[in-house]
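[job 0412] stage=fold_complex status=start
inputs:
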Amino acid sequence: MRQVYVGLLGAVLLSACATSVETPSAFIEARSAIEAADKQDVRTYAPGLLVEARDKLKAAESALENREVAKAKRLSDEAAVSIRLAESKAKLKKSQEAASEIRRSNAVLQSEISN
Amino acid sequence: MTILNNTFHNFKRLAAPLTAMAVIAACATTEPNPQIEQLEKRLETAQSNPTVFNASPTELNNAKARLNAAQSAYENNRTEKLEHELYMIDRLLTIAETEGREADVRGNFEDLRDRRADIRLDAREREIDRLSSELNEYKTKETDHGTVIVLQDLLFAYNKAELQPGSVRSLRPLANYLNTNSGKTIIVEGHTDSTGSSSYNMQLSKQRAEAVKKALVSMGIKGSRISTRGLGEDYPVANNGTEAGKQQNRRVEVTIQ
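[job 0412] stage=fold_complex status=done
writing structure:
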């Protein structure tokens, strides 16, 4: 009887090990933020940060597989903040281009009028 | 910390109050973390810049909270946690700084766009001035019916109603004026000298007015804006007895309405 109990206990522990840890919401949020940001502007203007965010997310995934939940959450937050920065950088570059374009065309217009 | 802890153990045997003092001393002498200090300065700078602050209040608040977390991780020797917080704070501050710069650039863009509208308006005013002065190239007279342009030096082939090329060119300023002032219509009136029969001159003057219309239409003016009349020899402006007078009488008058 005692042996049966031990066996059952072992089975319960094994099945506990087999279930994966719950995916933190930070991971899911970071993943969808990267998917949403992975567009032409970010690829063109902030490719380095896009790669970094993807790498962080990959590392978070490995951490999850190793059941290191706290580490996975940290890496997910780092991925999310990196992709957010990538979007900001891309937006800045676009605005800068628009401003220099209009500055240039104003100069052309001005010189056409002066002549 | 380790050295201080050893000291702490030695004192423990001696007296509890001394131990308490040692612990206080240990906390007080924790060296400030230069990375945290640097990030604190960046946060301060960002918060004191209204553009940066308004662009990313959430990021700055988040950074501020994380600075406390970083300090506590540092004091508790939680290296991984400290590294994480430092990374997050740096990123959050960079986002705020970037968004602040973007807001400045966008403001600059809007100024430039306003400037562009001013340049265009200025250009249009200058163009109108230029065209008005182009009309000044013609001999004009003001009448009850409007401004009348007298085209005296138009050259027609003798006995014909076709404008010579040089005279077509002299209509260019008028065409420019009509293009800019699309609400204006004109009446083109032909006049002749007294050579030849009255009915022939009537017909010739009408044909010459038509020739002017044709030239203006070829420069893009709608025919519906131009009416023509032949007035023959009945309205001389000079003596038909001299060659110079005849030349003055052979003319086309354009009334702008």
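[job 0412] summary: Residues 10-18 of chain A have pLDDT under 50 and may be disordered.
[job 0412] exit 0
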